[in-house]
Amino acid sequence: MSMEIERKFLLPALPEAIRERFVVRSEQRIEQTYLAIDDTQELRIRRITDLATGARTYTHTFKNGKGLAREEIEYAISESLYGQVAEAFGAVALTKIRTTAEWEGLVVEIDRYDQLDLTVLEVEFDSEDAAHAFVAPDWFGRDISAEKAYSNKTVWRSLQRK
Questions:
Q1: What domains sit in the chain, N to C, each tagged with a CATH number?
Q2: Which residues are catalytic?
Q3: At a CB cut-off of 8 Å and minimum separation 6, what does 4 contact?
């Protein structure tokens, strides 16, 4: 299993002066549905559409742990399998636009959610020490890495109740 080590920030707005220093790698529309969730584990599927090319990929992901570092297994699945599982589960997918960019030597992911007014900036790290040592600029917004209310699975659960 690989480790996902990331910090998340509640991005209020991306300042124009900063936007000019971003090098955008990709923009994707992500639709994700959770199949099983508990406090420390999650199982989900995703349909990912590249906004530049229209190409679609499908993934199945298992995550274990909570907080800054979690184990993650992710692999590609077929469109057919994705469709069968999504239909069988019948849940509302969480949808967002993800911009992956480089900024001052870091890769950042900015997720803008469709179903609610929420924009999150994530930074992934090679180690927990690097993640703890990172000093975020003020414009990143509040560090929400440890706030359960902003986890994708919590946001997704709230959509199922509407």
A1: 2-160 (2.40.320.10)
A2: 34
A3: 63, 69, 70, 71, 72, 124
